[in-house]
Write a structure and sequence with these properties.
By secondary structure, this protein is an alpha/beta fold. It is 47% helix and 17% strand. The strands form two sheets. A six-stranded mixed sheet has the order 3-8-7-4-5-6. A hairpin with a 5-residue loop joins β1 and β2.
Length: 232
Amino acid sequence: MFMIFLSHLAVTNAGGVFQYNRIDFFGSMEAQEELAQRETKQSPEIIVDEWAEPVISPSGKMSVYVPPKEVRDFLEKPDPENAKGYLTWNFKRIKKFILAQELLAKEAKELEVMKESKSSIKSDSSVSIKDSKSGASYLFYFMLKGCPTCERESEIIEDIYLNHPEIRIEAFAKGFSDRELDEFRFPARQDNGMSSLFKVNSYPSIAVFNKKKQRYFISGAMDRGRILKLFQ
């Protein structure tokens, strides 16, 4: 009994030293359930609008989708002025789709070229290797801005491109802007690591893939006749 008395005394003294108020972190379950039921019973706001589409989320929050003003104006009043506004709006959307599609096509083509090259090109220089893509002739041309030899070689590549459509030409350039590349009459794009993949150490350089499943890598300038001979 004496020990029980001491324990009660200790608790009483501790309560005097460490005074605190009761804190309830959670409200009563009854109050929360009542609030939830009240929110569930509330009817969503009815929006009287031909164009409005109310969307109710699981939490009960409502958002409204409304078509763009250009669409609503044209369909409500299809006159020339509203038609022009609608077309302007639609052309902007279509332009974005076209740009996105062109970018995807460009990236897909580049990945395919890099995949073919990585699986087939070895680091040997000026040697014939086999197993190129059958039935097609390719010429990969590597050029560098400010290289006088590249300028002369580009004229030869252009001549081959214009007069030998059976040879597919793709040029990879370093130091050129996109606008400058557009001025070439043969397909030309930024290097983007292709020279490293082909281990190009000097410019100009050419990689040839002919129909006989032979492939050649040549560093330095080559005349038109020697290049065409590699495709025979």
